[in-house]
C-alpha cells in the first residue's frame, strides 16, 4: 500500500504485524496476542492521525492511489451494468464511464470519472481528466435518463478537466458549461458523490445535483492547492497554505452549504477497506434518491435551482 508521509509510524507497525503473521502461519510460534496488541496500537494511532488531519493531509488521502475508484463502486453497487460509449460527435472518452444498470433493484443511469489503478489503466483513462467528448457523453446519458425517467448517479473523482490544447480547440469550456446546464435541467433525481478529488469545473460538470454527497476525507475545490499556490504565492511550495485557505474539506463544505452529507470513511481512510466504504456510499445514495424520487419534474428542477442559487449565503 502507498505510504503517506504522516502515516509512517503506522506503516512501520503494520509491517511488523505482517512479519509476525508470517511467523505464525509457519506454525513455529503462536504470537496471536502480540499481533493483537500491535493491531490495537495501530488502530489508536490511526484514530489519532485521522481525527485531526490538516487540509493538506486530506488532499493526500483524497488522492491516495489505493482508494476505490468509479469502476470499483460500479462493480460493487450496480447490477447488470451496461456501458454506453461515445458522444455521437467526435470520440469515446474513457476518463468518463457511463451506462445503464440497476441500483438496488431500481434501473438507473450511472456516470463517473475513472482515474485508473496502475500505469496502464491511468493512461487509458487519462488519469480521470475528461476531454470535451467525455462531458458531451455525460450530457447524452443524462438526457437519456431524463427521457426514460431514470434516476442519475454520478461519481466525482478528478483533478480537473483535461487542459490540453486539443481539448480547448474542441470546446472544453462550452462542454463543461453545457454539462452543468443539463444537470440543472433534467427532471429526474440526480445524486452526486465526491469519492476522491473534486477538481474545478471538471468536477461540478457532474455534481450539480439534487443531493451532493462527499466522503469524509475527499476534497472539492475550484482549483488544486498547487495551482492556487502557484497563482497567489508564485510557488507550489505554499500548497499547504492554499489547501487551508480554499476550504476544500468535506467538513468545511458541509458548513458552507455546498454539500448535503458527509459519508464516514473506515478507520484510516477509504483505501483501507473498500467493501465497507462501497457499502456506506450505497446506503447514502439510496437514502438520497429516496428523498427525491417522489417529486414531479417541475418541483424537482425548481428545488435544484433554488439549492444552487442559495449557495454562498452561509459563511464560516
Summarize the structure.
With 316 residues, this protein is an alpha/beta fold. It is 49% helix and 16% strand. Helix 1 packs antiparallel against helix 2.
**How many beta-strand segments?**
8
Mean pLDDT: 91
Order of helices and strands: HHHHEEEHHEHHEHEEHHHEHH
CATH topology of the largest domain: 2-enoyl-CoA Hydratase, Chain A, domain 1
The poorly predicted ranges are none
Which CATH architecture of the largest domain would you pick? Alpha-Beta Complex
Number of H- or I-type helical stretches: 14
Terminal Cα span: 36 Å
- Secondary structure: helix percent: 40-55%
CATH class of the largest domain: Alpha Beta
Radius of gyration over C-alpha positions, nearest whole angstrom: 21 Å
The 3D shape can be described as: globular
Strand content: 15-25%
The CATH superfamily title of the largest domain = 2-enoyl-CoA Hydratase, Chain A, domain 1
- Describe the sheet with the most strands: 8 strands, mixed
Number of individual domains: 2
